[in-house]
Amino acid sequence: MDGNYNNYNSFGGGGGGGFMPGEASSPAGGKTNDRDNKTLRPVTVKQVLDASQPFPEAPFQIDGADVANVLFMGQVRNISSQSTNVTYKIDDGTGEIEVKKWVDSNTADNMDTDDGKAPGDGKTELVLNGYARVFGSIKSFGNKRYIGAHSVRPLSDINELHTHLLEATAVHLFFTRGPPGAAPAGGNAASGGADAVMGGADDYSSGQSKALASMSLVAKKIYSLLKTEPQDDTGLHMQVIASKLNIPATEVARAGEELLSAGVIFSTMDEQTWAILEY
Amino acid sequence: MSLQTPRILPSHLHAFHPSGASSNTVRILGTVTALHGATGTLTCGNNGDVTLILKSDARLQVGKLVEVVGKVADLEGGQGYGIRVLGSTEWGDPADCDYKIYEHVVNATHKFKSIFYD
Questions:
Q1: Which of A28, A36, A238, B48 is the most buried (most CB within 10 A)?
Q2: How many angstroms separate the CA atoms of A150 and B46, rounded?
Q3: Which GO biological process entries does UniProt record here (chain A) (predicted)?
Q4: Strand locations in chain A, DSSP E?
């Protein structure tokens, strides 16, 4: 809320009541950021319990990154059905946490939806000591932390449980060490696609790897080509890059701009000849 | 604080023995290959066997994949370490589980301990 108020002030001088671009999102107040951040992060229960909150009502943070929604899997240790919600105690071997699933009376008797079950239904689906996958957001009430669940479903494939734990590790490493470069085996196992892109060029210095992480696929390809292709001091011409990578010259030019503006490559003979900026 | 149950392989048993470790409750995954009344054998992929010390009401079945939560204990007659079973979850056919993934999980959970265990 404070943020928006200040925003208003800074526009206020010249504004005189017009519709400001900055105000477009203001009706939602402090929740705007929350709504925009729709990421679903795989975590362990211990990470939820360890999550920090910079100030009351602020979004929770894990590894310094805001978390909107979390996903975890664990065994159901207790089920308690109330008229408005079902509370589960979930244990994933790293800790225990309460999960509240509100009962939506509108969907309770709708057979087509598999979430929003009535308390009775939930019980037949999820069994005590069986595994569940939970997806929801971190809440706190007093000093107690719990999960406001969007969905609590039974888990039947053990591989899903194991890959989840590896994913949680991979995401944790992403936030603490940066994107996968020469990532350790544990982190690599689960991060699939992203690795394939970075795979060919995992030996660049960490500063550049951070800059590259947010770039387009083409930019990453150009970088790794410049890194590996034999060349003299003047680097490679844009046309050469385009033909070697089999990518249209216009795309190469656009991606080249990205790399140039980030300062990871520089132009040599002319504007279209680039080499890697080593530092 | 809640109870933590580290996932392990047979070769890690010694690290959770009551004499040394602060916590000796562990989680282990394997196939039940033999049952002899009060004890059973859990085969953990290519990582060897563990002797399970069963409760009287244990309902394990030979040939099923199970995840066991239990305490590391000495076996009678000094035959090394075993696990006193506190609870078990049946996961069905061992062929449906890629044990390699579990091995990676065990490695990852111990290598990046901060997000899994205290």
A1: A238
A2: 39
A3: DNA replication; double-strand break repair via homologous recombination; nucleotide-excision repair
A4: 40-42, 61-62, 65-66, 69-81, 85-91, 96-102, 131-141, 144-154, 236-237, 265-267, 273-276
Kindly report the CATH number assigned to the domain that includes residue A45: 2.40.50.140
Q: What is the ipTM of this complex?
A: 0.94
pLDDT in tens, A121-179: 444 478 999 999 999 999 998 889 999 999 999 999 999 999 999 999 999 999 999 88
Rounded to an integer, what distance in angstroms lies between the CA atom of residue A13 and that of residue A182?
51
Q: Domain locations in chain B?
A: 10-110
Interchain CB distance below 8 Å, A186 and B107: yes
In this complex, is the C-beta atom of A209 within 8 Å of any C-beta atom belonging to chain B?
Answer: no
A159 to B98: CB separation less than 8 angstroms, yes or no: yes
Topology of domain B10-110, CATH: OB fold (Dihydrolipoamide Acetyltransferase, E2P) (2.40.50)
CB contact under 8 A, B104 and A94: no
Cα nearest neighbour of B90 on chain A: A130
